[in-house]
Amino acid sequence: PFMSSCAPANSFNTQAASEDESTFNEADEALLAPNEYAPNPDRTLENLVVEAAKPADEAAILSKYKHLDPKKQVPANLLKTALLYWDANPARFPSKTHIAIVDFSIKSKKDRFFLINMKTGGVELHHVAHGSKSDKNGDGIPETFSNINNSNMSSLGVYRASEPYDSSKFGYSMRLDGLSSTNSLVRKRAIVLHPAWYVKETDLYAPGKTYGCLGMSSSVSKDVINKLKNGSLIYVGLSKPNQVLK
Predict the structure, then answer these.
(1) From CA 195, how far away is CA 218, in angstroms rounded?
(2) Sign (positive or negative) of CA dihedral 81, 53, 67, 64
(3) Hey, is 64 helix, strand or coil?
(4) What share of the chain is helix, strand, coil (3-state, %, to 5)?
(5) H or E element at residue 234
(6) Rounded to the nearest 5°, which phi and psi values hold at 143?
(7) Phi-psi category of 150—alpha, beta or left, where left has phi over 0 and alpha has psi -120 to 50?
């Protein structure tokens, strides 16, 4: 349910979200946090940057996952890319019960975070916010993406859901590691998945925007984190690749 103070659409605007986040900077905390994928102090995130392996027989691999998404709710091209990467790189994803796909070709007021149960094939649909500078015209669809610190933009690519932690500002959150050249610096940028008061599980209001993080409704974020934490795949992509990538 909504708080009584919520007003129509513009109550969940960029300014409101930015003001909330501008008082909070987790960069130092994120850099100093334990990282189970980089146990050596001198090992930087760049060592973890990888691109998807190219399977020899895509059809044979994809046939193993026919049970997924029986209602065909997930963008097919994004699901295909995610599954091929996930199957070709099992060691990179120690947590294998769920994967998640984010489609930033879909407007922010719609469900565009797809949480997939790899055993049952079922799909949960959720709302998720994008970076404020990725959507400069404010139409709810990000057009520009970046891997640069302080860009306030979202990053496309394959992520590994990593360790959960208690954020001093947002509460129960989860750190992310970028495994693509387009998102390799997300941990250094303190890009995480966190609950956000300006994201609601409704199509009635456009959510606010983040500084590049994946912001989700607090009504679902804890459950999503617990299903993905410590090594699941998250693929952030564009089902309609007509947006400008920078």
Answers:
(1) 5
(2) positive
(3) helix
(4) 25, 20, 55
(5) strand 232-237
(6) -110, -20
(7) left
Tell me the per-residue pLDDT of 47-65, one tens digit each, with 9 for 90 and over. 345 566 666 688 899 999 9
Nearest-CA neighbor of 222 among 170, 186, 176? 170
Q: How far apart are CA 199 and CA 81, in angstroms?
A: 27
Secondary structure element (H or E) that encloses residue 81, with its range: helix 76-88
What distance in Å separates the CA atoms of residue 138 and residue 126, rounded to the nearest whole number?
20
Which tens digits make up the pLDDT trace of 159-208? 999 999 999 999 999 999 999 999 999 999 999 999 999 999 999 988 99
Residue 60 corresponds to which tokens in the numbers above?
A: 């044979």
Name which of 197, 28, 77 is nearest 129 in CA terms.
Answer: 197
Using an 8 Å Cβ cutoff, are 179 and 162 in contact?
no
Helix (H, G, I), strand (E, B) or coil at 30: helix
Could you tell me how many residues make up the chain? 246
DSSP letter at 68? S
Residues 94 and 177: beta-carbon distance below 8 Å: no
Q: Where are the beta strands (DSSP E) in 64-188?
A: 98-103, 113-117, 123-126, 157-167, 171-178
The domains found in the chain, sorted by start residue, are 14-37+47-237 (2.40.440.10)
Q: Sort strands 98-103 and 113-117 into parallel, antiparallel or unpaired.
A: antiparallel
Asked if 14 contacts 209 with a C-beta cutoff of 8 angstroms, the reply is: yes
Tell me the whole-structure pTM to 2 decimals. Answer: 0.80
CA 221 to each of CA 7, 31, 41, 126, 172: distance values in angstroms, whole numbers, following the listed order = 23, 23, 30, 9, 8
Torsion of CA 211, 217, 222, 224, to 10 degrees: -90
